[in-house]
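Shapes recur. One chain:

:::
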Amino acid sequence: MGRRRSKNKVFQLKGQSREVVAGQLNWKGRFECELPEGMAWVSGAYTGHPCLVQFGRYTRDYISARVQEHFSKPEGSREAPCPLFQSCGGCKLQHMAYQVQLNEKRSLFLRELMIHPFIENHGSEIEIQPSPTEFAFRNKMEFSFSKNFDGEIILGFHEEGSFSRVLDVADCLIQSAPMNAVLIAVKDWAQRHRLVPYDKKSHSGGLRHLVIRESKYQQKIQVNLVASNKPPQLQDLLRELHRIPQVDGIFFTSNQSLSDAVIFDSIEKLSGSDVLIERIGKFEFEIGPRSFFQTNSSGTKVLYDVILKYCKKGLNSIQSNHRPKLVDFYCGAGSIGIYLSHLFAKVVGVEEVNNAVVDARKNYMRNDLDPPVLFAEKVEKLKPGEGAFKNVDVVVVDPPRSGCHYKARRFISDLNAPVLIYVSCNPKNLLENITDFEGAGYEVQAVELVDMFPQTAHLEAVILMVR
């Protein structure tokens, strides 16, 4: 028997233009349109409003499209302030006023989880907290080196849906002006010396990435140049970067791998401080080139305040005959545990990345807190019976975008902690995760959303669950 042929005919639309009426927003920041040929994902549209689109790349499930002309626009629409809006894969909601973005993202979350009883019964009560700043909020940015059609070096972001084409960026609105100044200085240096970017097909060339980090508290910037080999013109780059007053900490990272990710084969400090210091509330955190930290510093306080609120609410609901204990799963550099530390006599942290565990110890000491019990291990590989995991009152689970492994969910459930706070940056797998915990005896008590990523469809969800 031959393979069943797909009914999806979207490939026939490639390169064509057509008037469509945009459907609902999805988690990729695009608007889904059901067409006779199949599904289209449209960038820059408005739900329920007609527009002329041009179709481009396609997959087996959908075809991408970009708006060429709007025939009507809703209240709250605006001209996207970034000239790369339609081509960049990042900020897909710039064409909406910020409050409209928040409303769309909240509605998207409720639609995704509508089948859950709590959302079905209490969805109207769920709030979304805005980011304190709509633009220039990012404290970390990664840019890629490439060449344009004329062979000149460029530095920027990958085009939407493309692994090979890089868009040249001069003024990114979600990072600060000093970070943009660093971007321009590095690009000018690379062009002046006619340096060669790394080619992912031939695996030739040197320059790969530029990583810029900023402490909003110190108003200082850390620069990390990533390349396959060390350029001999680095002293000239240092001179250029030292002209930017905020730059404090310049690093070179060698990456010999075939992967396009930022991989630290080795790292060398070229100038300045070893770390930046960021402040969230009254607590300070060290941020080095390898450190994990939330990318929206002011938004992090909003998120942590929601977690703190739920933590207090959960502790008030239980009767305990011992001083309370917190287990912070996927703890990273320890920031959540530190922010909650005044509520607990003991904190246990679990994090699989060794460098993050080292950072967590430093951050606890920096804030004059008793060092926690830290496990450098995957949650799903932990063994039951460890004394540090006995008599736990509250667990905080803040997994990566892939969610919480099913073995990790089982281990966490078996701790029998009265209170579980689940933090999700990916509602696509949130339902499966919290349903598993409900099967182990937990019940959803409250949900609150936090926008850590303005101009995109991403958000954070905080769920309070109790036994």
